[in-house]
Structure formats: structure tokens, C-alpha cells
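#struct-pred
JK: can someone run the complex with pentane-1,5-diamine? inputs below
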Amino acid sequence: MTAPRPISRRRWLTQSAGAIGAAAWAGCDGAGSAANRLRVFNWSAYIADGVLEQFEEETGASVVYDNYSSDAELEARLATGGGGYDVVFPSDRSLPALVAKDRLQPIDQARLANWKHLDPKFLSPPFDVGNRFTVPYFWGTLAVGVRSDHVPEEAAGFEPLFDARYRGRITMLDDPENVIAAVLLHLGLPMNSLDPGHLAQAKELLARQKPLVQAYTSDAYKDRLISGEAWVALGWSGDLLQAADESEEVRVIVPATGTLIWIDSLAIPRAARNVDLAHRFIDFLLRPEIAVKNAEAVYYATPNLTARGQLPAEMRDDPVIFPPPAVLDRCSWLASRGGEIVKVEAVWREVRE
Ligand code: N2P
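RT: done, C-alpha cells with the ligand placed:
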């Protein structure tokens, strides 16, 4: 399914989401007293400009803000207690292990007055029954961005990623589980398969694709699509839509065969230094007005029901942001494959070497 860029898509941002925020907030470490400092570790391009400033103004806190672009990066940071972050944004696939390893601490729902705005559909997920450790933030899909000035209209799935006509113009996420899921889906195989035959086929295709790939990146693909340096990118729905907002040439494909669906949550690390402020920040992000601002900036789907009702109609009805049930029915979540995940990682290592 392809969503043409809505004509009325507003330019909410003066720059790409998060760009100003990240620059303005980097290097603020040391500002304010420790009691008043909040350390946030978030995916890149995942919060609206001005939101951190507003939180600071309202609370008198100072925010230290850093970005990451893969679950692996967050997991590594939490494993070493590094950063002393107070709020992080793990995805569904990384949560079972983070909870099992005691990397997170319980969230006190009684301190979240805005909890009531969350859509019950997204509460008590299998990876955190009862929401002891997580609060849903945004969800989205694994999708393909193409430059329509180079890629014909017919493309409807993952196939442009493997098309030799786009040699040197293709970017892939730097993320073994997402990439191998996409490859398996493209091959018509179950995306969570650990079957050695399936993984061998995936490896073979990735090895054949490698000479076509410009870069394996989980954050630069947006800018490369906008500039035209890349023509085809495997990415996440919202980042691709941010690119489409900047360039009329960018088209976003949610593969009609079905794709990977994911949800990221707010969580408080076990080693957090300011649990009180972390709760205040999470509650602030749940405030409908703030959730709307973020949703309008990042183009991901908000699990905040009140906020969703306040989104501009063209966003609420955008089938890339909120895929219709017929498409969602064909989508799958990454399975938590425990120690078996080394089989997927081995494929990735051999391809990338
Ligand atoms: C934000 C990407 C988050 C999606 N740039 C991956 N969980």
C-alpha cells in the first residue's frame, strides 16, 4: 500500500524532527543540580522540537538529552549502567530480556495522572503484563521509502531494495533482526523463522544485495532520501514520512504482503538517578497536547487515544501512519527468540564482514 504525500501535510517543523532539539540539548551535562537533572536517552528524530524546553520551563529541571539508533545500543548502555539515564525508549523486542535482567524499575501508575489517555488496546502487552515497567510511546511499521523520480510507481513491497537498477542508491537499516525479517518476508517466508534453510536463503540474498547497498544505517536514511543521495531505503514508517514531508519525491511503501510492526515504550532504568523527575516527564509526554505535538512532528502512530482524536484528519487517516486493519492483520511482531537469536546475528555478521 502506498500513501501519496497528502497535499495538505503541514510543515510542522522548521527542521527535521529532533534535529534542533538534539543539538540544543547535547552537552548540557553539568547544568543544574543533580536533584533537578533529568537524563533522557531516546531514539533519534523521536520527539518534537520545543518539548524538552517546555518541560524545563514548567518544572525548573534541566534535561540532558542523548540519542541512539538501535535497541542494541540501548541494551549495551543499560548493561553497563552507563549514562545514568532516567528515561529510555525500548522497543517491544528488547523488553523481555531487559526485564529478565532487571535493567528496569517499576513505574508507579498512580503518579501518572495522564495514564487515562492511553488506548486500552495498547495496555498490558505480552512483554509487560500489567504495565509494571512500561508506558506505550509510539508504534509503527518497517517500511520502504523510495524516490519516485527514480523508482517506478508499481513498486509495492520490499522488491526495490534488491533491484540492481538501484545499485549504490539503496540503504538498509543497521539492525540484524529488522533486516532479516524484511528479507524473509520478501522471500515469502515467516519473518521470525529460525529454520536453517530459511536463514540460509536470507543470507544468500543479503550477500547478493550487498554490492548494491550504499549504507547500512538506522538514522541517516531520512536525510539521504531527502537529498536524493539514496533512492530506496529500508526504514521505519515515521522517519520515512518525515522524509516525505521534506521532499515531494519521497514515497512511502508499507508492503502489501504485510510487514513488521513494533511499539516503543517509555521506561525507567534500574540505575536511574532521578525517579521522581522521570515520572513527571513520562506524565508530561502523556499529556494530550504534548502527545499531539510529538505525533505531528515524528509521524509515528500514537497509542494516546485522546491525542489521536485531536490529530489533523489527514494524519488520522494516513494509511502509512495508521495502517488499516486489513494490512495490520498481515503484520507480525518480532518474536522474542531468547538465546536462539544468535542464529540471526550469525547471518548478519557473515554478511557484514
Ligand atoms: C525513531 C525510530 C524508532 C523506531 N527514529 C524503532 N523502534
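RT: quick notes.
The first helix runs from residue 19 to 25.
DSSP finds 14 helices and twelve strands in the chain.
JK: thanks, will look after standup
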